[in-house]
Design brief:
This protein has 314 residues and is of the alpha/beta class. The chain has 2 domains: 191 residues, Rossmann fold (3-Layer(aba) Sandwich), CATH 3.40.50; 83 residues, Immunoglobulins (Immunoglobulin-like), CATH 2.60.40. The chain contains 8 helices and 14 strands. The longest helix has 21 residues. Pfam families: fn3 (PF00041), VWA (PF00092). Keywords: Collagen, Extracellular matrix, Glycoprotein, Repeat, Secreted, Signal. One of its GO terms (biological process) is endodermal cell differentiation. Its main location: secreted.
């Protein structure tokens, strides 16, 4: 017995598949009028190899293709690093998606060592700058892609980026160090940190990553600007005052945590957003304390402003 489909049924099925494909394409687009400045930092060390580097370029192309590119929308720059970082193009270099995708397809493989800390400092010092396209009213995002453990310090340099209001994503492949990726990425890790076993598995994270990046661009989950300039004063054997400079804009409250440097118990205080100072009391004499101050709006909080102080001898 033979079984077949009529011509009309075949046409209807093809139309349904085409409609589904078009809808899926539309769903993956990040439709927003919000401005965002995204700087990509790509590991070009020898351990990657030319074949994997091509795979990584394809991954980057898919990542950036979801955005509406333009001087009044999303701008994307890229730096490649190994022993030393190199800006491939600045934020304001490509004003159309076509131009940007052409640049992604053609930037060359660099080769060298894995100096991630130096590269993170490079994008802060040379790429996130107004003279090369950074806009004061944009959401600022950095995306690191690396296949190995850094050969230099990354904790302080990544903290400097986050303290500057830059939301950081870290994407690790193959031999990347997961603890290092976590130390670089903004919180929470389940949104900002990815680690895959091989370059061919990058395709498995592209959809989730694109959604999270789009939310960051729109502002959903975007890291708040942190307070700055933590100063301690009025130090006694059992208390001291902590004062900070508020971030720009409105803050609902501040979440202040403090603990002994050698201890495990964390104490917490909530301070009204209109106040930028608090006295920490009932402390032990001649003891060093670590203080963290977070700006809070709703369920969102900034990266911490950190400092230390030692109480007087009783």
């Amino acid at each position: 017995m033979k079984c077949g489909l009529s011509l009309a049924a075949v046409v209807a099925l093809l139309a349904l598949l085409l409609s589904s494909s078009q809808a899926q394409q539309q769903d993956t687009q990040c439709n927003t009028t919000v401005k965002a400045d995204i700087m990509m930092l790509v590991d070009g060390s020898w351990s990657i190899g030319r074949h994997n580097f091509k795979t990584m370029r394809n991954f980057i192309a898919r990542m950036v293709s979801v955005f509406d590119i333009g001087p009044d929308r999303v701008q994307i720059g890229l730096a490649q690093y190994s022993g030393d970082p190199k800006t491939e193009w600045h934020l304001n270099a490509h004003s159309t998606k076509e131009s940007l995708l052409n640049a992604v397809a053609n930037f060359p493989y660099k080769g060298g060592n894995t100096m991630t800390g130096m590269a993170l400092n490079h994008i802060l010092q040379y790429n996130f700058k107004p003279n090369v396209g950074l806009r004061p009213d944009s959401h600022k995002i950095g995306i690191l892609i690396t296949d190995g453990k850094s050969q230099d310090e990354v904790i302080l340099t990544s903290q400097n980026l986050r303290d500057s209001g830059i939301e950081l994503y870290s994407i690790g492949v193959k031999n990347a160090d997961e603890n290092e990726l976590r130390s670089i990425a903004s919180d929470p890790d389940d949104i900002h940190m990815y680690n895959v076993y091989d370059f061919k598995f990058l395709v498995d994270i592209i959809d989730e990553l694109s959604v999270n990046l789009c939310n960051s661009v729109k502002g959903s989950g975007h890291t708040l600007e942190a307070p700055t300039n933590l100063v301690t004063s009025e130090v006694t054997e059992s208390s001291f005052r902590a004062t900070w400079t508020p971030p720009n804009g409105t803050v609902e409250k501040y979440h202040v945590t403090y603990m002994m440097t050698a201890g495990e118990r964390i104490e917490e205080l909530l301070v009204n957003g209109s106040v930028s100072t608090v006295v920490l009391e009932n402390l032990n004499p001649l003891t060093e304390y670590v203080i963290n101050v977070y700006a809070v709006i709703g369920k969102r909080s900034s990266e911490p402003l950190r400092g230390t102080e030692t109480t007087r001898d009783g």
